[in-house]
Design goal:
There is one protein chain. This protein is of the alpha+beta class. It has two domains: 35 residues; 145 residues, 2-Layer Sandwich (Double Stranded RNA Binding Domain), CATH 3.30.160. Helix content is 43%, strand content 27%. It is built from four helices and four strands. A four-stranded mixed beta sheet has the order 1-2-3-4, covered by helices on one side. Strand 2 and strand 3 form a beta hairpin. The model has no long low-confidence stretch (mean pLDDT 81).
C-alpha cells in the first residue's frame, strides 16, 4: 500500500468515527426528552402489562373479526377476559380481495386479502374516546381450483382461510402495539 492509499483509508475512518460521535451525542440528548421503555415499571408501580389486561376488546362481526378479536384478547390478557375493564377497544373491520396474476382466460391465479380496521380506545367510566386510528394488513394466497390447473376448490378455500388467519394475526399485532404505545403514557 502506498502512503496515499493509507491516508485515504485513515480519512475514511476519521469520518466514520466522527459520525459515531455525533450519533452518540444525539442519542444522549434525545434520551432526556421523556423517552422510556414501553414495558418498564412506572414510578407509581404500575406496569403496561397490567394496563393492557384492563382493555376489553368489543365483539367484531364476521369470522375474520372473531379471529382478530381472539388474537387481541390473547395478546392483551393472555387469553381471558379482563377482570375489571377500564378501557374498551372498538374495531370496525372491512375486508376486501384483489385478484392478482390473471390468466388469458380471465381467471385469477392468486388473490390478496386486505383487512382495514378503524379503532377507538374508549374509557369505560365516562365513555370518552381517548384515541382513534386505523391500520391495515394484507395476506396473499394462490388459487388453483378456479384457474383450471390441477387443484381443488377445497384447496382454494383453505388458502383463503389461512390468509384470513395470517392477516388477522398481523393486524392484531399492529393494533396491540399501537394500543400499548398509547396506554404506556399512563402506565
Amino acid at each position: 500500500m502506498s502512503w496515499l492509499e493509507i491516508s485515504k483509508c485513515g480519512s475514511r475512518s476519521l469520518k466514520g468515527a466522527g459520525f459515531a460521535v455525533i450519533a452518540s451525542l444525539t442519542s444522549l440528548s434525545i434520551s432526556g426528552c421523556g423517552l422510556h421503555p414501553m414495558y418498564a415499571t412506572a414510578s407509581n408501580g404500575s406496569s403496561l402489562v397490567d394496563v393492557m389486561k384492563s382493555v376489553q376488546v368489543a365483539t367484531i362481526p364476521s369470522r375474520t373479526g372473531q379471529r382478530l378479536r381472539n388474537e387481541l384478547v390473547f395478546g392483551t390478557t393472555g387469553g381471558g377476559e379482563p377482570a375489571a375493564p377500564v378501557y374498551r377497544l372498538d374495531i370496525a373491520l372491512r375486508e376486501s380481495v384483489r385478484n392478482t396474476l390473471i390468466m388469458n382466460t380471465g381467471a385469477p391465479t392468486g388473490q390478496i386479502l386486505q383487512l382495514d380496521a378503524e379503532f377507538r380506545i374508549i374509557r369505560i367510566k365516562d365513555n370518552e374516546t381517548l384515541f382513534k386510528g386505523s391500520s391495515t394488513a394484507e395476506a396473499a394466497y394462490d388459487l388453483t381450483g378456479f384457474s383450471g390447473t390441477t387443484g381443488s376448490i377445497y384447496g382454494d378455500t383453505r388458502a383463503a382461510l389461512d390468509a384470513e388467519n395470517r392477516a388477522a394475526r398481523s393486524l392484531a399485532d399492529t393494533l396491540k402495539t399501537r394500543v400499548a404505545a398509547f396506554l404506556s403514557r399512563d402506565a
